[in-house]
Write a structure and sequence with these properties.
Blueprint (H helix, E strand, L loop, with lengths): L2 H6 L1 H4 L5 H14 L13 H17 L24 E4 L4 E5 L5 H9 L4 E4 L18 E2 L14 E4 L9 E3 L5 E2 L3 E6 L5 H9 L1 H9 L10 H5 L2 E4 L2 H44 L6 H15 L3 H15 L14 H17 L26 E4 H4 L2 E4 L13 E4 L4 E2 L2 E2 L7 E2 L1 H6 L8 E5 L7 E3 L5 E3 L3 E5 L6 H9 L1 H10 L10 H6 L1 E4 L2 H44 L4 H7 L1
Parallel strand pairs: 3-7, 12-18
Antiparallel strand pairs: 1-9, 2-8, 3-4, 5-6, 5-8, 10-20, 11-19, 12-15, 13-14, 16-17, 16-19
Helix pairs in contact: 3-9, 3-18, 9-10, 9-11, 11-18, 18-19
């Protein structure tokens, strides 16, 4: 193993996706292939161990400690070539292997009342190889209770059934009884139990194990388990391998802790920066914002951190904290008068219906303080029409250009036509047509709440999970989207939605939504600023993806080089 090269470049690969987990798997893979420690010519070869295994097995059978089961005579397929001194054998030849006992509820209650005895271990009590088995689960088997099979100290356990099959693995440090979904291996004296544990944890072994699993739940029979191939090194080399794996796993633990420490520091710094923006000090806000935007590229190492940054930007935007106010802007109160006048004109011309006067905004309806030039209003006050799509099932017609749109077709300002999107005839479209126009905003109100799209003249029929509302020229629809994308609307919708598995937001809740309205000129400035900052977030995300891909390529090259030297140009390219 070319550890020097790996460690030399570790700082570049430490934050690669699953870097530590992959390094652990790689170490185990080297271990079972005889590539982790050098072979010693003076070691007693594994072929000699087979004689001692046969003798030990016969002695245990004669003492009645195990059954005389016959092993398969089918030849073993060798998955890879082993070093000199190693041998392939069937897993059934590595020890006394058997499954545990199933227990019913009365027996479980009895074990829960037992004061002294052997722990009864279930799958849930076993970790993933390096974790300690949980012996303190409250279930004990009396030493005199002969109903249960007993596994010796240093038996290796593996789950044989269900989602944890082949993954949950443990090494017992005491005598135990155990459940029927677990298989124990009391390894022979010439097989170090910890080497068997590490072999079980290797990717090679899991692949072999998985290939023999069957059934809907997924599991391996004891017969198929016993037939799995197992690489056996000389005993002295087993101990050297175990010592080296222990050392390298300890190194991985330290690397993991260091990475967690770096992540914690980044998280704290990023959270502190965003907190200062979400609860701004008027005197220092501009400096805080400048610092945060300059520092966040270095602090963001995960997509979820950038998502929080996006939410902070939207949060500031709808509170009047993102761009400065201009005293020359016409205030929102005048804007609302113009909107009301335009709505009255449309009623007089018959282009829309007169609607009820929205309820006034009380102090309790105002979740935060707005700048003096802004104003609160109900969403219905901004709209000349607000409704949803048809509540029945339309008559579908295949192959037309008229699509039936629901809330799941609304995505980031666009109507998205999916392969599963159904179509209707022109006559069906006209029968259920809604008054959509260039000022229409569409919102998902069923399922995923709050997805927004702008209507751009598409020939569509709306379903009931899509709400539409038509603005006037006195409101920037892209600012409206900013409000609907913000955590403020998300919280409002979640609090008022009904349903358990599928959330539904009523049209009344949409009508009554308290909307923070800036002057029209400031709406345009906010939209421009949000666009610029979201573009910065896009670049940060792209940079993260590129960096992760580069680290992954470098890690792949280093691991490949450790197994079999690669062309130096490949490693240089990865670097």
């Amino acid at each position: 193993m070319n550890a020097e090269r790996l460690l030399q470049h570790y700082e570049k690969i430490a934050d690669a996706p699953d870097a530590i987990a992959r390094l652990r798997r790689f170490i185990l893979d080297l271990a079972v292939r005889g590539k982790l420690v050098p072979q010693e010519p003076n070691d007693e070869p594994a072929s000699e161990l087979l004689k001692r295994i046969a003798k030990e097995r016969a002695e245990r059978i004669s003492r009645g400690e195990m059954r005389n089961g016959k092993l398969s005579a089918v030849p073993i397929d060798f998955p890879f070539e082993l070093p000199s001194g190693w041998v392939w054998l069937r897993l059934g030849e590595t020890g006394n292997i058997f499954s545990g006992n199933s227990i019913n509820e009365p027996t479980r209650e009895q074990l829960a009342k037992t004061q002294e005895g052997r722990p009864f271990i279930a799958t849930k009590d076993v970790g993933y190889g390096l974790d300690r088995i949980d012996y303190e689960n409250g279930l004990l088997v009396e030493l005199s209770d002969k109903r249960f099979k007993v596994a010796r100290t240093n038996s290796v356990l593996i789950c044989a059934e269900g989602g944890s099959a082949g993954k949950k693995i443990g090494l017992a440090d005491r005598e135990i009884c155990f459940g029927n979904k677990l298989i124990a291996n009391e390894t022979w004296s010439v097989l170090a139990s910890k080497f068997a544990l590490y072999a079980y944890m290797s990717e090679f072994f899991f692949d072999q194990f998985s290939s023999k699993m069957k059934g809907i739940i997924g599991g391996i029979s004891i017969a198929n388990f016993l037939d799995l191939p197992f690489p056996l090194p000389p005993l002295a080399e087993q101990h050297r391998i175990v010592a080296k794996v222990d050392e390298l796993m300890g190194l991985c633990d330290r690397l993991e802790a260091a990475r967690a420490g770096r992540e914690m520091v980044r998280d704290r710094l990023a959270a502190a920066s965003l907190a200062r923006l979400n609860a701004p000090d008027p005197e220092t806000f501009q400096d805080d914002a400048r610092f945060a935007l300059d520092a966040l590229p270095a602090l963001t190492a995960r997509p979820d951190q950038i998502k929080r940054l996006r939410q902070t930007i939207l949060n500031l935007a709808i509170r009047g904290k993102l761009v400065p106010q201009d005293r020359n802007d016409e205030p929102a109160s005048e804007l609302l008068k113009q909107i009301a006048k335009e709505k009255a004109r449309l009623v007089e011309t018959g282009e829309t219906k007169r609607d009820k006067i929205p309820s006034p905004i009380g102090e309790d309806d105002k979740p935060f303080t707005l700048p003096s030039s802004w104003g609160w209003c109900r969403l219905r006050s901004l709209a000349t029409a607000l409704g949803d799509g048809i509540h029945g099932t339309p008559e579908y017609t295949l192959g037309t250009e008229y699509h039936f749109i629901n809330g799941n077709n609304l995505e980031n300002g666009r109507i998205v036509i999916r392969p599963t999107t159904k179509t209707v005839s022109l006559s069906e479209l006209k029968k259920h047509k809604k008054p959509l126009n260039e000022y229409t905003v569409l919102v998902s109100i069923n399922g995923t709440l709050g997805n927004v799209a702008f209507y751009e003249g598409e020939e569509i029929m709306l379903g009931k999970s899509a709400c539409y509302f038509n603005l006037t020229p006195f409101t920037n629809k892209r600012f409206v989207k900013i409000v609907l994308d913000s955590p403020y609307f998300s919280n409002y919708a979640t609090e008022r939605a009904t349903g358990i598995t599928i959330m539904n937001l009523s049209l009344n809740a949409m009508n009554e939504f308290p909307f923070p309205l800036p002057p029209l000129a400031e709406q345009h400035r906010i939209v421009a600023k949000v666009d610029a900052l979201m573009a910065l977030c896009d670049r940060l995300e792209a940079s993260l993806a590129d960096t992760a891909a580069t680290r992954r390529r470098l890690l792949d090259a280093l691991l490949a080089e450790a197994l079999a030297p690669v062309d130096g140009r490949e490693l240089e390219a990865a670097e």
